[in-house]
Amino acid sequence: MNAHLRRAAVAAAATAMAVSLAACGQAGESGDAAEETAAQKGDDITIGLLLPENQTARYEKFDKPLIEKKISELTDGKAKVVYANAKQDATLQTQQVDTMITNKVDALIVDAVDSKAIAGSVKKAKDAGIPVVAFDRLAEGPIDAYTSFDNEEVGHVQGKALLEALGDKAKDGQIVMMNGAITDPNAALFKKGAHAELDGKVTIGKEYDTKEWKPENANSNMEAAISALGKDKIIGVYSANDGMAGGIITALKAGGFTKLPPVTGQDAELAGVQRIVAGEQFMSVYKPYAPEAAAAAEMAVALAKGEKLDSIAKEKVDSPTNKAIPSVLVPVVSLTKDNIKDTVIKDGVYTVQEICTPKFKAACDQLGLK
Question: C-alpha angle 205/210/213, rounded to 5°?
Fold first, then answer.
């Protein structure tokens, strides 16, 4: 992990552009007040970091340490990061925001459990003069900045990969679509992109919105789909992420599939990568976390100091409540057995040793992962 963080820091430093030093008023303060506050604080700032859950490996293993490291680099180690994880509880996250406001943090980075429910908390922070960066999910309310991946493109990548895996058999049966949670705006974008690729090219036998993204809920939904459609009719499964893919594949095995149909995924979780190596999962979507984390850190530090985002955020995104939000969108990569070495291993996300445990050694050897 240390090696990964070092590489991530170098990559982020190479791509990061200098932030404008001209202070301007932010988050409900007058311009003069903001400039005076920024001048007094310098690098001695406090950033609140709120992540949504700990079921998905990425948040604790990648996002948190990468953001903390980048904020430290940007402030010569003087900034403080206050962290809280909502454990998929929107009410708890509201309380966590309230605590951050009470403790007068200088900026917030928020990955919302529920993008709509968080809007009131975002407004409360704004009213308290605390700028908010929406991280990974586009929160509603008066956010100041946003960074994520091109989430509709994620769905396109997944849909294209599933069609590629099906090939000439695309019309020979039905697929099951296992979308993410309706509380997550990204899930709707993944679904939109996937449908744009799949509609008219395959028959969608069953489709589910999976409560809380939980693998066990995806497992139950898949069991229901097998029961409704019959195992001989299912030729592929669109799974919006790797955690759910694990639950789906367990259900497929229990349902009597001797040869597993292609299953998609997302997040390049270690278990997902190992299933790809073993031939149980067809693909995942690799999202380089370092540039996303770096963008969130850069925007939060700049906003905390009252600086402009012009040199950091080159794009604008609209939310249901706000228009033209300064944004950084990071490209994604389709991860299959053919490019594991050139993606997650090359970028230092995982070592060959982490992936190729004794259980997967033979499969790794076949792929040349040594």
Answer: 140
